[in-house]
Amino acid sequence: MFELFKKKKAGDREPAVGRVKDADPAKEAGLEGKRLPADAADLEKVAEAPASAVGPAGPAQAQTQAQAQTQAQTLAQAQAQASSGDGAASTSGYGTRAAGSWLSRLKQGLSRTGQNIGGLFIGVKVDEALFDELESALIMADAGVEATTKLLTALRARVHKDRIENADQVKAALRDILAEHLKPLEKKFPLGYASPVVVMIAGVNGAGKTTSIGKLAYAFQQQGQKVLLAAGDTFRAAAREQLIAWGERNNVSVIAQEGGDPAAVAFDAVNAGRARGASIVMVDTAGRLPTQLHLMEELKKIRRVIGKADNQAPHEVLLVVDGNTGQNAISQIRAFDAAINLTGLVVTKLDGTAKGGTLAAVAAGSQGVRPIPVYWIGVGEGMEDLQPFVAREFAAAMVGD
Ligand SMILES: Nc1nc2c(ncn2[C@@H]2O[C@H](COP(=O)(O)OP(=O)(O)O)[C@@H](O)[C@H]2O)c(=O)[nH]1
Ligand SMILES: [Mg+2]
């Protein structure tokens, strides 16, 4: 049984339940080649079905709604705070919010690393001891051996070539070298090249997948995109409710199913997206650890089944990584990449106590990781707290500038 939720204005949710044909990926083989307009037509019927088709909310459901409501309130507060931020207008194209406030949050978040690295250059001579301390500081910041070695080699060469004798200039050189090093991870998220662009989102529990999808729904709408969401985390009712709440806040539809198969939800969302002329469909998934092999298999299946609804899809496969994860992030990225072939990363919670060096490790291909682009960074819980990754800004925050 499928539910479709479309929120037009506050208090106007229209849940409806109907039967969707051939959407059970347990019959995965049977789905081959079926790109059914009939499916889409059924889904539209579903959307128009009377709300009375929904059973009364049980206690469990009532509870998850209460949780979603609390989250919505927290979010509204965060937004109210965010919108009172100051600074220059954003040049990111992600809304009109002041740029100063999110940049200062990134700096605040990386302040430990910023102080550890930036502090080394105060009132010292440029000598071997400085390079030694810098090496330790980069390792402490989770940059890993490969990136640290590469950065220091480049820095020594530049100090030598440019005959730098002043510690402040060494710091400036390090900032530039770090920015160049991170630059290959900087990539604008492409839009509009498929109808719809299908984006699958994965990651461990609590990384910030659902929140990031909510923020992205907002950002994409700001850019004139028509967004559809798929509640592929069918594992927890609260997760579905959370995505639906984000959908309501953004006035976008959410394809959801009570329990059941996440691949089926994803499949139907792609078809519904095509039928409704959505420009982008984002598929949420349940959190999982790379060591939970059966759950990694499930993720592969979701990817395969999305491909049956549209053989070019998913166009983007994103891993959401908590910026506080440290070195373990590398093994997460490697494992998810091996399973579902990632096209991009979203690094969240960089407003907290993240060290930041992990991105330098990714850029260096540390421990065999592929240098996968970082499309966005999360710097808070509010709607506008997801910003494109800019290597230069990130490098500046890491050296405490
Ligand atoms: N401070 C901060 N919190 C975040 C950020 N992104 C997500 N969160 C919070 O992290 C928690 C888990 O997020 P959620 O989206 O539910 O994670 P999921 O399990 O991966 O879907 C929530 O409390 C979010 O508000 C971020 O960039 N900064
Ligand atoms: Mg979630």
Question: What is the secondary structure topology, with strand pairs?
Answer:
Elements: E1 2-5, E2 16-18, H1 28-31, H2 37-48, H3 59-83, H4 99-109, H5 111-118, H6 128-140, H7 144-161, H8 167-182, E3 197-202, H9 209-222, E4 227-230, H10 237-250, E5 253-257, H11 262-275, E6 280-283, H12 293-309, E7 316-322, H13 328-340, E8 344-348, H14 357-363, E9 374-378, E10 386-388, H15 391-398
Parallel strand pairs: 3-6, 3-7, 4-5, 4-6, 7-8, 8-9
Antiparallel strand pairs: 1-2, 1-5, 9-10
**Ligands bound to this protein structure:** guanosine-5'-diphosphate, magnesium ion
Q: What is the N-to-C succession of helices and strands?
A: EEHHHHHHHHEHEHEHEHEHEHEEH
Shape: elongated
Measured between the Cα atoms of the first and last residue, the distance is 54 Å
The fraction of residues assigned to DSSP E strands is 5-15%
Strand order of the largest sheet: 2-1-5-4-6-3-7-8-9-10
